Amino acid sequence: MEFMSMYGLFLAKIVTIAAAVGTLIFVVFSFGQRNSEHRGKLSLIDLGEQYKEMQREMQLSRMSDVEQKNWHKEFKKKQKAEQKLKKQQAKSGTMVAAKPCLYVLDFDGSVDAHEVTSLREEISAVLAVAKVEDQVLLRLESAGGVVHGYGLAASQLTRLRHANIRLTVVVDKIAASGGYMMACVADRIVSAPFAIIGSIGVVAQIPNFHRLLQKNNVDIELHTAGEFKRTLTLLGENTEQGREKFREELNETHLLFKQFVQQQRPSLDIDAVATGEHWFGTQAKEKGLVDAIGTSDDLLISEMDKYEVFGVVYKHRKRLIDRITESITQSADRLLLRWWQRSGKPLM
Question: What are the E-state strand segments in 5-134?
Answer without folding.
Answer: 41-46, 101-108
